[in-house]
Each structure stands twice: as C-alpha cells, then as structure tokens.
Amino acid sequence: MLFYFYIFIFLVAIVSLGVSSGMVARALLKLGRIVGLNECVLSFMLLGIITSLPEIFIATASVITNNPLLSIGNIIGANFTNITLAIGLVAYLSGGIDLSGQVSKRVFWISFMLVLMPSFLVLGGGLSRFDGLLLCLMFLAYIIVFSYDGQFLEKSAPHVPYGVHYFSEVYPSLINLTLGLLILVLSSIFIILFTAGLTSYWPIDLILFSTVVLGLATTLPELFFGMRGAIMQHSSLAMGNILASTVFNSTVIIGLLAIVSPTATNSLTAGPVILTSSFTFLAFILLSVFSYTGSRINRTEGVLLMSLYFLFITSASALYL
User: Fold this and answer.
1) How many domains does the chain have?
2) pLDDT digits (tens, 9 = 90+) for 145-154
3) Which end of the chain, C or N, has fewer beta carbons within 10 A?
4) Domain that holds residue 60
5) What is the mean pLDDT of residues 43-48?
6) Eight-class DSSP state of 202
C-alpha cells in the first residue's frame, strides 16, 4: 500500500514540476519583454536556463538531501531525452525542423563535445572540483560562441514605458515567478525523497532510475515548448533550445555539483553511464547526418530519433532490471 502512495506522490510532484517550470518560464520571458531585452537575449534565457529549471532544482534538492548521484543520472538522462524524444517529436508534429541558418555547424559540434564531456570525466576517474570549475568555464566560452553566431548583442527591443501600466504588468509576473519557484523547490524535494522510497520497494539501480524516469520528467519543459513551437510553426527554435539546454545541464549544473560534492561520482555505476553516453553519441551522429544531408530534420528522421529513445529504454530495461 505504501508503494502505491509513493507512486502517487511521485507522479503529482512530476506534474507540479512541469507546471511550475512553465509558470516561471512565462513570467521571466514576460518580465524580459517588459524591461526591453532583445529577442536574442530572451531566446537564450529560454534555451539555456529556463528549460533547465527542473534539473537545477533537482540538483539543489539532491545536494540538500545528500544524494547527488540522483542529479548526475538525471542530467545524463535528460540530455539524451532532449536530443532524441524532444527533437524527434517536434520534427514529427511540425513536418520537419529547418536547420539552415538556425544553428551553425561550429555551435553544433561544440555542443556535441560539451554534452559528452561529463561522461568522459566520470568514466576517467570521477569529477574533481577542478573538473567542475573547468566545466563552468566551458559554458562561459560557449556563451561567447553562441552570442556571435546568434547576434546576441543586437540592439535592445523597446520596453514598456514607466508608469502605472508598467507596474501593473510587472506585479502579476513577479507573483507568478515567486509562486512558480516555490512549487519548483517543493516538487524537486518531494521527487528526491520519494525516489528513495520507490527504489527501496522496486529493485532497480538508482542511477538507471534517475536516468530514465527523472530524465524524462525534467525534460517536460523542452517537450512542452517544442510541441507548442511545432503547432505554431516555429519548430526551428527547438534545435537551439535543446542544444543550449543540454549544454547548460552538462556544464553548469554538473560543474557546480562537482564543486560542491566532488566525491559524488566515486560510487557511480559505470554501466548505465556507458550505455546512455553511447546512445547519446549515436544520436548526435544521426543529427549531424540529417543536418549535413538536407539541412533539416524531416518527419521520418524524427521517427528515427524517437525510435532510438525507445531502443535505449528497451536496452536499459533488459540489461539492468
């Protein structure tokens, strides 16, 4: 009976995580437009930080509860889910993602290397504080490259004039932002606590559980934004969205975890990490082939990416359950 209670609370916390991340995203984007941030800055906020809010709060909660391995597995799984299920679903729903001019090949390959970097460091003997600092610095370098490719420093957009109307626009957004952050924090803590309860009843590797289940749960913002973009015929934004989000996960979040808890990866199970990293490598190879052959990901190729995700789930289940 207690097992089903754990499942119920866990599912409620996951739904709350997705809903609250959407609240925070909409509030931040609206505040950005009110103060006059240009569209490239807003896009980068969406791409690199806002859609990574669930991973950020899962990482924070995992450190508070002294269980950082959950966050590492979550990041590895979320990145793979982003570049297979999320991109594949957007490509299928929209009829294809046009890559011409959206993401340069230089940004694509830098993103590829940065996403796989934590896995190489973990398998090479664990993450030290120096490795964590190096990953954070790599993200700063990525911002510079992304900025020049995306004309990040273009002229600012017009902002809402100061006055009564200005504050009437700001206050609701601030309230939604505060409420969304509060729900995010509580949802993340509940997810971490009830994950431990579930794994005590269900004989499954903790890293595998966080890679598959939490990885899918914390990818909900990217999935929601991607599907919405596909419906509105803005599917090309999904590619930059997912690349920047996965890079932020792999560098800043993993880097800060390594700085705060450098011994967290010492007891990391190598099998699930190798399996997920291998599938991630294969996914990037497929994406590079799609982008070089036709400068777009068509509906059939989207199905191939989604099939790769389900093949990973099947392989993981067969090997570790």
Assistant:
1) 1
2) 766 655 444 4
3) N
4) 2-320
5) 58
6) S
